[in-house]
UniProtKB/TrEMBL annotation:
GO terms for cellular component: ATP-binding cassette (ABC) transporter complex; outer membrane-bounded periplasmic space. This is Microcin C transport system substrate-binding protein. Keywords: Signal. Gene3D superfamilies: Dipeptide-binding Protein, Domain 3, Periplasmic binding protein-like II. GO terms for biological process: microcin transport; peptide transport.
Length: 621
């Protein structure tokens, strides 16, 4: 388990990259103009722009980039990232494109990719996209409106991950107007809908078609290579442990402004290591090119050695402006022992972040105290006028604490102390019917308070030392926490089936909240296996606030709704929050280079993959 990048699904990071929200501004200099889509206001880049500011348009396009596991998966068994069953190969995002793509120096924007023109209906209830006539799939076939509709309908079907039916649930239908024109019609008119439609990944109807004309069901596609429009093709793979992508020499979109200066390597090679220790030692031995370090202990004490001393390997910290998202111990409310909010708050009080930061983290981390840390969407203090207008209508369904100061995470720095926090926790537990007797904390029936913290067997980056410290604190309350490790693939299956007590999850960050929040917290998805509502949140008040988030027509409305959502979620104590870092820590081979201008909002792995390059003087592998 890494200390910073923890994924809640084998495809949720892929989905998050696709999700954008916005209204539309088209600069029409011709019948088919380059269009930009932004959440609020106008996009940064106007029609006719040459490339994004954070790329090097003159970067050489050659060489091979060798990477290790980008997440906790140590093997893969399919090339389809859109289905629930199985583990997808890393790097599949290189093969799929959508009608629009985003900019990394804006909070929420998108620019035409497969599409070359967008027309939003005056009433906001539909958006029409015209597809670039040059757009081609990897097999040479043109991308058509029929393919876009097929992709949309497939992803909304039961054969695909349930998240898609949530994200695209307000899109009523896709209508083929003509061969290169498709219109998406919506159930509701929100500023998010045009970009939701534009973010749908597009693949050919021929993916999965056998030589005899039969079609493999979408949810049964395994090692059938995708027929998609991205810049890369699968070159070779071996035993679910390695995979190599090569640039498609016939890729259609290399000269598009959104593609200039990107994907500069001719080949991308992934090597999957069995655990974090093997992965780190392989990097130090020169087996791959870049290590994004998520464990500060490694960064300080283990990312060292001869190759670092000689300058062959370089360490850098890159600042970012990302919203942090939420990482923490997610509590499964489907378990009876966790249904009382006072119990969940007591568990939070027993977590001593300050001790961990001093003893294990070298004072490198900050505590997460919001679902929207590092943004202006984080609720603070008491509710302001805008929040109160939303919360007041739900007063009967909300705890009175919601209308007070925003909850702060327990602190053990003097004059505060762990002892004071545990005394407070004991009082909350007693109020909830849990008392200490016969050597354990017990309920009215005499049953002891015991739960399991589930983590993956991540070798040198496991949560074991954190869990051990937390477990000692819980023992002082009479609570026994059993720490259990499993292979990540097995843990993911248990999370998808909601078969856990407490587990560590990181919800990917978003700069502009939207439909993904519905998937994470709406009551309708609490019992839908495979959904993002991991904690099992069921709250009519949260459901009502989520509608406000999705339907916000101005930035001010979005901020008010998100503040209200954050305040109610934090008062629900569904998660014991962890920590975050305001920088990306990257170690890399000195043969690589990166643009002088950093993006504002970026995932380190994706940034390296899309904008770095190999120096001309470097020898090819």
């Amino acid at each position: 388990m890494t200390h910073e990048t923890i994924r809640s699904s084998n495809a949720r990071c892929f989905l998050t990259v696709l999700m954008l929200g916005g209204s539309v501004m088209c600069a029409a200099s011709s019948a088919l103009a380059v269009c930009a889509i932004a959440q609020y206001g106008e996009p940064k880049y106007s029609a006719g722009f040459k490339h994004f500011d954070y790329v090097n348009a003159d970067a050489p396009r050659n060489g091979t980039l060798v990477l290790a596991n980008p997440d906790r998966l140590t093997s893969f068994d399919k090339f389809n990232p859109f289905t629930l069953r199985g583990n997808p190969a890393p790097g599949l995002g290189l093969m799929f494109e959508s009608l629009t793509t985003g900019s990394s120096d804006e909070a929420a924007s998108a620019y035409c990719l497969l599409a070359d023109d967008i027309n939003v209906a005056p009433d906001g209830l539909s958006t029409t996209f015209h597809i670039n006539p040059k757009a081609r799939f990897s097999n040479g076939d043109p991308v058509t409106a029929e393919d876009v509709r097929y992709s949309f309908e497939t992803l909304k079907s039961p054969q695909a991950l349930p998240q898609f039916s949530v994200y695209f649930g307000q899109i009523a239908r896709a209508v083929v107007v003509d061969r290169l024109t498709i219109r998406f019609e919506y159930k509701v008119a929100t500023r998010e809908m045009p970009l939701l439609a534009g973010s749908i990944p597009v693949f050919s109807r021929k993916w999965g078609v056998m030589p005899d004309g039969t079609h493999i069901p979408f949810d049964q596609l395994a090692f059938e290579k995708p027929v998609a429009s991205g810049e890369f093709l699968i070159d070779r793979y071996d035993n679910g442990r390695t995979i190599t992508y090569r640039r498609n020499p016939n890729y259609w979109g290399a000269s598009l402004p959104v593609r200039v200066g990107t994907h500069n390597f001719a080949r991308i090679d992934y090597r999957l290591y069995s655990d974090a220790v093997a992965r780190l030692e392989a990097f130090k031995a020169g087996e791959y090119d870049v290590l994004v370090e998520h464990v500060v202990q490694n960064w300080v004490r283990r990312d060292i050695g001869k190759r670092f001393d000689t300058g062959e390997l370089i360490k850098r910290e890159f600042p970012h402006h990302n919203g942090v998202g939420m990482q923490g111990f997610f509590i499964n409310l489907r378990r009876p022992i966790f249904q009382d909010v006072r119990v969940r708050q007591a568990l939070d009080l027993a977590f001593d972040f300050e001790w961990l930061n001093r003893r294990l983290f070298y004072e490198q981390y900050k505590r997460i105290n919001s679902f929207f840390v590092n943004t202006d969407l984080q609720a603070q203090g008491k509710p302001d006028k805008g929040e109160l207008a939303i919360l007041a209508r739900l007063r009967k369904e909300l705890d009175a604490a919601v209308f007070g100061e925003m909850p702060q995470q327990p602190d053990t720095d003097p004059p505060n102390s762990l002892r004071a926090n545990l005394i407070r926790a004991r009082g909350l537990l007693a109020q909830a019917g849990w008392t200490y007797r016969d050597g354990a904390l017990r309920d009215a029936k005499g049953q002891p308070f015991v739960f399991e913290l589930l983590d993956d067997s991540g070798g040198g980056t496991s949560m074991e030392p954190i869990a051990a410290a937390y477990g000692r604190n819980l023992q002082k309350l009479g609570i026994r926490m059993n720490f259990r490790t499993l292979d990540y693939a097995l843990i993911q299956k248990r999370i998808d089936a909601f078969d856990f007590d407490v587990t560590t999850v990181r919800l990917p960050d978003v700069q502009v909240p939207g439909t993904e929040q519905v998937s994470r917290f709406a009551s309708a998805y609490a019992d839908q296996q495979g959904s993002d509502n991991i904690a099992g949140v069921k709250s009519p008040a949260i459901d009502a606030i989520l509608k406000k988030v999705v339907s916000a027509q101005t930035r001010e409305q979005l901020v008010d709704a998100t503040h209200a959502l954050d305040r109610v979620l934090m008062n629900g104590y569904y998660v014991i929050p962890h920590w975050y870092s305001p920088v990306h820590r990257v170690a890399y081979r000195n043969t690589l280079a990166y643009p002088a201008t950093l993006p504002l909002y970026y995932d380190a792995e994706e940034w390296i993959l899309s904008t770095w390059w190999q120096k001309p003087s470097a020898s090819s592998r």
